[in-house]
Design brief:
Blueprint: H1 3-21, H2 23-34, H3 38-63, H4 68-88, H5 92-120, H6 126-155, H7 157-178, E1 196-198, H8 201-222, H9 225-231, H10 236-264, H11 266-287, H12 291-306, H13 308-317, E2 320-322, H14 325-352, H15 358-374
Antiparallel strand pairs: 1-2
Amino acid sequence: MSYTKLFTFILSIFVVGMVELMIAGILTLVSDDLHISEALAGQLVTIYAFTFALSGPLLVKLTEKYNPKWVLLITMGVFMTGNAINAAGPTFIVIVIGRIIASAAAALIVVKLLALTVVLSKPEVRGKMLGLVYIGFSGANVFGVPIGTKIGEMFGWRATFWMIVGVSLIAAVLLMFQLPNQITPAADEPAGETKSRLLHPKEAAKYISITFLILAANSAVFTYISPIMINGGYHLSEVSIALFVAGIGSMTGTSLGGAMTDRLGSRTWLLISISVFVLSVLLLNLTLPVYLLLLFVILIWNLSEWGTNPAIQMGIINQVEGDTSQIMAWNMSALNAGIGFGALIGGILVEYFAPSFSTYIAAGLGIVCLLIAMTIKR
């Protein structure tokens, strides 16, 4: 894959990830403006994630016979429309509609881009290339969420969504010029191979279940990091810095995860990264009073969690012969269902208990992931 294509894929993933993660930074702004509770505002993450999970496999199936380039370009247009509705929506219900439209489009965009990354990459570097493309998601943490939070603080949260529309337009133009009109199969796949065969269903199910659980654990804490820190005596500007640090961790973790997956294998790297994740979320409440220590724990937490993504993707790809789009769609569905489930749990804890309780739920889910990873055989 050329550097220009790689950049285009990263930017496209970046803007999609930005939409999904942005609510964490502007949660209090949205709730204040719409006169709703923080727990209800947090359900915008749940709605987005569940829509993504349900629509991904269906849309991939419906579009698998069509040219990937034009499918992506049309879907980018739908994605921009949904975010324009988010920016202009006068009520919570209208914004929910915009989130549903944007999420369904995002589901197809992400799966198509990840599948194309596999097709356009050499077999020996696919883990690395998937990790690099996935940097778009972590880059949304590093740059997108903190910048979006700052824009929301300065100009209102709606300006954040207008910015997303603008970046989406740039990504769509780049896709138009960088994607070939015809996509050829990967070097190790027979020409004309369009079907796929799942070789080891139980092993694939293990990887997908880890995706669901680790994202649920992460989302339960990350979605409500703003109220967690504000309840701890911090201001929104300090939350923005924490989100920036989280993004650095996620970007580093994604890149490191791809390289370590190629070197150690999916199972070994998963055991290491999940163990570090569990320890870091358990330390979050203990370090909350000391800002620098808190930032360090947030860095390690996000590095370890995002480091699992390339390992899971490569583990799943190795269970499939032929086209990987459908199995990757199921994995992305599990990812977003996990985000939605975690945001839902976190919302309940925010409403009825304390936001800090979510870290213990996250650690428990992480331990379950660790037990599943220990049973992986292939």
